[in-house]
Design a protein that fits this description.
CATH architecture: Alpha-Beta Barrel
Radius of gyration: 18 Å
Mean pLDDT: 95
Low-confidence stretches: none
CATH class: Alpha Beta
Largest sheet: 8 strands, parallel, barrel
Helix content: 25-40%
Oligomer: single chain
Order of helices and strands: HEHEHEHHEHHEHEEHEH
Strand order of the largest sheet: 1-2-3-4-5-6-7-8
CATH topology: TIM Barrel
Number of strands: 8
CATH superfamily: Glycosidases
Strand content: 15-25%
Distance between the termini: 20 Å
Number of helices: 10
Shape: globular
Length: 314
């Protein structure tokens, strides 16, 4: 049984924060080969919108899409459905998926996969003009963890490289890319979710990460009130599991528009068997901490969808 009915019941009982509602962001398609977008699953998207609509009295709800697909018409069909239902949505902009999925699958076409750029500023501008206020936010996802992965591949762990990944010639992390998207968000009154599991608080041994977090702080200072920094509870080998009560220590120090949580069934090694009680416990903890945003993934855990595959599939 999909986890979404149980989660909806738990969150509905918890209620939203006042005066501003908590944002709930649900990942719908990350660019996998059997996702809703590439299959143009209009009926599936309608069912998801109907399910998410039940949360809207208490929360601000946003579907999240990875815009790196070659077939933009298929993506736009899903975004059109959201806009028709007056449901704002979020697009990935700077993401590990743009490298790990985008450079290794023929059906995806990231703007700059080796650097994690999922959409060009030109396409983003076009979508903002088309969808207006319904394009409400952007996500930065696993930038620091992918940057660490790239550094490790080049030094101690070459076996971590995915079979078809295209590696950047320079650093994966580039503040200039983040700055461009933050400027776009500021100019268009959008919010940005900045999500990762690799933070210095829990990885003090990663010396270069100290400078990278300093870069992030500078960017947050340049663009105040826009970014919600979220801890992603998908650290490898279930390392996030014992952090239920202190995960916020990794992200709370960042001066931004608040800190939040990316609540994932990848908390467990087998993401399909993660107890829904774990997801609910983490979500409730985020609400206790007055987090302005909680994001959920993967889509197949919460909705009746097949587990993601790299190759094309129904």
């Amino acid at each position: 049984m999909p986890a979404i009915p149980i989660l909806i019941t738990a969150l509905a009982m918890a209620g939203g924060a006042e005066p501003a509602k908590v944002k709930l962001v649900f990942s719908i398609d990350q660019g996998f080969g059997n996702g809703i977008v590439v299959n143009r699953d209009v009926e599936g998207m309608k069912r998801i919108i109907a399910a998410l609509d039940t949360l809207r009295p208490a929360y601000d709800v946003y579907p999240l899409f990875e815009p790196q697909v070659k077939d933009r018409v298929s993506l736009e069909k899903m975004l059109d459905l959201c806009a028709a239902a007056d449901m704002p949505f979020v697009l990935d902009a700077y993401s590990s998926d743009a490298m790990t999925l985008g450079t290794s699958t023929a059906h995806n076409a990231p703007a700059d996969g080796p650097h994690g750029i999922a959409i060009s500023l030109e396409d983003l501008t076009r979508y903002k003009k088309r969808y207006g206020r319904h394009l409400a936010g952007l996500r930065f996802m696993e930038i620091m963890s992918q940057d660490f992965t790239v550094r490790a591949i080049r030094s101690t762990n070459p076996e971590w490289k995915g079979k078809d990944w295209k590696m950047p010639e320079d650093d994966f992390w580039q503040p200039r890319y983040a700055r461009d998207f933050l400027r776009f968000a500021r100019d268009n009154r959008m919010f940005v979710q900045w999500s990762d599991w690799h933070w210095l608080r829990f990885a003090p041994w990663d010396t270069p990460l100290k400078q990278r977090e300093a870069d992030i702080r500078r960017l947050l200072g340049e663009f105040p009130g826009i970014v919600i920094v979220t801890y992603a509870n998908n650290e490898p080998s279930e390392q996030s599991v014992p952090r239920l009560m202190n995960w916020h220590e990794a992200v709370a120090p960042f001066v931004a528009a608040g800190f939040g949580l990316s609540d994932q069934s990848w908390l467990r090694k087998d993401d399909t068997k993660c107890p829904i009680e774990d997801i609910v416990a983490w979500a409730k903890r985020a609400l206790e901490l007055k987090c302005p945003l909680i994001q959920f993934e993967p889509a197949w855990y919460f909705f009746k969808l097949p587990r993601g595959t790299f190759g094309l599939g129904d």
